[in-house]
Amino acid sequence: MMNSGTLTVREKNKKFKGAGGRKKRTKNYVCNDSRSWADLSVDLLDIISNHLNLTEFLSFSKVCRNWILFSLTSPQRRSLVFCISTKAKKSCYLYISTEFRYKTKLPNFAGNFCIGFSNGYLIMEDRLGNVWVINPITAHQIQFPPMAKPCIAARQLRNAASKSPKGGNALRRLWGWRRSCFATFGPRGDFLVIFLSLYHRDVMFCSSKDNNWKVYSFAYQSRNIVDIVVYNGRVFVATDDCRLGALNLGSSNDSQTGVLILEYSNLKFLNGKTPLTRA
Amino acid sequence: MASSSSSSSTQVKKITLKAADGKHFEVEEPVAMEMETVKSFFVGNEDAMKDMVVPLLNVSSEHMPAILDFYRNHSEFRKRTPPPPAEEVKAFNEAFLENKSDEQLMEMIMAANFLNTKELLNFLTEAAANRIKNKSVEYVRAFFGIENDFTPEEEARIRAENEWAFDGLDED
Predict the structure, then answer these.
(1) Nearest CB to A55; choose among B106, B107, B165
(2) Which of the listed residues A224, B24, B136, B160 has the most CB atoms within 10 Å of its CB?
(3) Is A129 left (phi over 0), alpha (psi -120 to 50) or beta?
(4) Which of A5, A29, A65 sits opposite B150 (nearest CB)?
(5) Which part of the chain is the F-box domain (chain A) (predicted)?
(6) What is the pTM of this model?
(7) Distance from CA of A121 to the nearest CA of B (A)
(8) Contact (CB<8Å) B150/A36
(9) ipTM of this predicted complex?
(10) Are B84 and B126 found together in one domain?
């Protein structure tokens, strides 16, 4: 945990150069007043913040300019890695680089599936097609209605997959969601969860506005969706003919649902090749 | 102050340390050597120990007795052959922090940093972290006397950042 050793050493050497002409330094030395918690040096902030957990650290970084500047360069600020054991009962681990490890306990974790991680939330599903999202830090949960189309075939595949050692890959290729997104947006904290399945060639989504699962199928459309992303409450898609589009989820009328292609010139994926389209 | 009981053959050597405000402290050699800063002062120059006064520019005399006390006790804890029960160490540490204001705590952290002793520094910074834990940003500011130096716009933006890590989605 202590990764500040080198810093402290450097500090010491610096001080020691000064100690040679110590008479001068002692005179100028002011014992108090110039010190405050806000002006703590980086190495001290580093050591102190090592004792904080993730939420505390994020809160810590909001106190003042000096502290936020420190936190922006701190290794704790690096990307977060989740590690969920297949045998996990109640907890998963969060890693930040290799130095920090946090353990988080979550309700309803055992025996269920994490089908995505999006916007700070784990997207969870159980065998009955119930879907919920959970924040691994705060344990805040949002429950969605049961899926309109709990895919039995998929579940059978999944059971088969769990029995064979190579099943994980087969599962992902045949059935798995290519992408699952959860997003919050708008002043009222509306939220949306959306799944893209390459196998079924459809997009399933449920938003807080109508609290119901809807399906947009592109199985008979001229272009396939290969990836989706949610930004500011809008769903953007990449298609297999190398275009970007916006997906209209059709708030009330299903006939409006569809992909509106956004025109960008010179757009190339994967060195001009068509992205992977087959499930 | 531990008495200079010359236990075996030689008298325990003393080293004189000078605090920032000029006060002198006579310290037994092993205790003084707990401080890396003091130790490195004498590296390759062991003879100088007798008549050298080590200036500690960043340590005020107010905190010297407490800091020396910490070194004495903890080096004693380390030497004991069945290691002392955790409660004893904990009790000492708690007593050490009792009646220490945040300002004193911070000054001691700076002192420990200057003296370059990992054990004391680690202990004190943990104490500081414990005082921050589970506290709101406003509380931490007020507690440590930190001025809010963000503009209202910056404050709002910073607050919105990493919101997912804090309780609830719609917390205001």
Answers:
(1) B165
(2) A224
(3) left
(4) A65
(5) 37-67
(6) 0.58
(7) 8
(8) no
(9) 0.73
(10) yes
Specify whether B125 is located in the same domain as B144.
no
Gap from B21 CA to chain A (nearest CA, Å)? 8
Q: Are residues B118 and B65 in the same domain?
A: yes
Nearest partner of A236 among A186, A279, A275, A179, judged by Cα: A179
* Beta-strand pair A202-207/A214-217: antiparallel
Query: In whole angstroms, what is the distance from residue A153 CA to residue B44 CA?
Result: 77
* CA dihedral sign, ordered B81, B83, B88, B89: positive
Q: Where are the domains of chain A?
A: 5-77, 144-272
| Total domains, chain B | 2
In Å, how far is B3's CA from the nearest CA of chain A?
30
Residue B3 domain-assigned (yes or no): no
Q: What pLDDT tens digit does each residue of chain A (279 aa) get? A: 333 222 222 222 333 333 333 333 333 333 334 467 788 788 888 888 878 877 778 788 888 888 888 887 776 655 667 776 666 666 667 666 556 677 777 777 666 777 777 877 888 877 777 788 888 777 778 888 877 555 544 544 555 555 555 544 444 444 456 677 888 777 777 888 888 877 777 888 888 877 888 888 877 777 788 888 888 778 888 887 777 888 887 654 555 666 776 666 555 555 445 544 443
Residues B113, B82: one domain? yes
Residue B120: closest CA among B129, B130, B110: B110
Q: Residue B97's domain spans which residues?
A: 14-132
**Residues of chain B contacting A41 with CB distance shorter than 8 Å:** 113
Domain-located, residue B6: no
Q: Are residues B127 and B149 in the same domain?
A: no
